[in-house]
């Protein structure tokens, strides 16, 4: 934009950045995938059994991601293959642990692929009248969601054939403090998964905490869906202040905060209810709730940019 690079030089530079080695190494990234899956299960308020098995599936998913980084053919089928294997593995584990909630564990295992963030950014672009990029991003996100969901259905069918039916035994739910603990754990895991710089990591972790607790406080007074608006507003203002103080793009902090808010998991659950008529949780009017959450996030980010304009457009 400043004229210091041509378009071809900029594209080469972007390619060079994307091909850089992982700054955190294989071991830490493996731990981050397992932690993010387990932390998401904690956020869902399930049980310790589900948290443990979700983390195991998260580790397995990273094995596929690691292989996909070195194989183009593997990369093309990564998401549906991960969904298939997670569903088969969960079906097998349920034979030994009938207290495991199979749909929740599968969803937690593949949560890193659920395109809630892409859907939100696509809708934000459409709201800003960036119609081409917004439409492309939204359609790409929906196709990824469909691939994941088909993989889960196929994997569950194979698992049922191999292992048979299981009788679910409801375990004790997680205590409240565990759900609160999940937010910083998930935020720290996202620092590694997003390959953020170490000096920016505290800001990213704090963005997740700001988003979650602002949304929670807003939800107490205005309901969960509208509470998300206050979470998006708070993390948007926080990210723009970060950009001013650190002279860095606001997205460094914004992405990790928005990921905590985006309803990608609820979109998946709504798809499950629509196609199979099954519910993972006792929630009514889920489709309306998903739409309200998406709109609340987009509106929150727009109001945040008005309240504290970012110095950088990225």
From TrEMBL:
GO CC, any one term: membrane
Keywords: Membrane, Transmembrane, Transmembrane helix
Pfam families found in the cross-reference section: ThrE (PF06738), ThrE_2 (PF12821)
Membrane topology: Multi-pass membrane protein
Residue intervals of the Threonine/Serine exporter ThrE domain: 183-306
Molecular function (Gene Ontology), one example: transmembrane transporter activity
Threonine/serine exporter-like N-terminal domain span: 2-158
Membrane-spanning segments: 21-45, 51-68, 80-96, 102-126, 138-157, 177-196, 203-220, 226-243, 250-269, 289-308
Primary site of residence: membrane
Location(s) in or outside the cell: Membrane
Family the entry assigns: Belongs to the ThrE exporter (TC 2.A.79) family.
The protein's name in its UniProt record: Threonine/serine exporter family protein
Taxonomic source organism: Shewanella piezotolerans (strain WP3 / JCM 13877)
């Amino acid at each position: 934009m400043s004229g210091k690079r041509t378009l071809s030089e900029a594209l080469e530079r972007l390619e060079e950045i994307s091909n850089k080695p992982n700054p955190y190494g294989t071991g830490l990234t493996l731990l981050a995938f397992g932690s993010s899956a387990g932390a998401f299960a904690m956020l869902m308020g399930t049980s310790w059994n589900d948290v443990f098995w979700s983390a195991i599936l998260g580790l397995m998913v990273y094995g596929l991601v690691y292989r996909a980084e070195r194989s183009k053919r593997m990369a093309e089928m990564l998401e549906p293959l991960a969904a298939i294997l997670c569903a088969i593995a969960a079906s097998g584990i349920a034979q030994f642990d009938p207290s495991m909630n199979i749909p929740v564990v599968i969803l937690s295992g593949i949560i890193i692929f659920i395109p809630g963030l892409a859907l939100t950014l696509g809708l934000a672009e459409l709201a800003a009248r960036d119609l081409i990029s917004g439409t492309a991003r939204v359609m790409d996100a929906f196709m990824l969601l469909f691939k994941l969901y088909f993989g889960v259905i196929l994997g569950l069918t194979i698992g049922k054939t191999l292992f048979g039916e299981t009788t679910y035994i409801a375990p004790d739910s997680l205590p409240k403090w565990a759900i609160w603990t999940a937010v910083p754990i998930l935020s720290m895991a996202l620092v590694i998964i997003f390959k953020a710089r170490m000096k920016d990591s505290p800001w990213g972790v704090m963005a997740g905490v700001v988003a979650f607790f602002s949304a929670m406080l807003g939800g107490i007074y205005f309901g969960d869906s509208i509470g998300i608006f206050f979470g998006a507003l708070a993390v948007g203002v926080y990210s723009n202040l970060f950009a001013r103080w650190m002279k860095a793009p606001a997205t460094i902090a914004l992405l990790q905060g928005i990921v905590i808010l985006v309803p990608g998991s609820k979109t998946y659950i709504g798809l499950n209810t629509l196609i199979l008529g099954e519910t993972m949780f006792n929630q009514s009017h889920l489709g309306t709730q998903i739409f309200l959450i998406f709109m609340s996030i987009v509106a929150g980010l727009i109001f945040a940019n008005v309240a504290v304009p970012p110095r950088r457009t990225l």
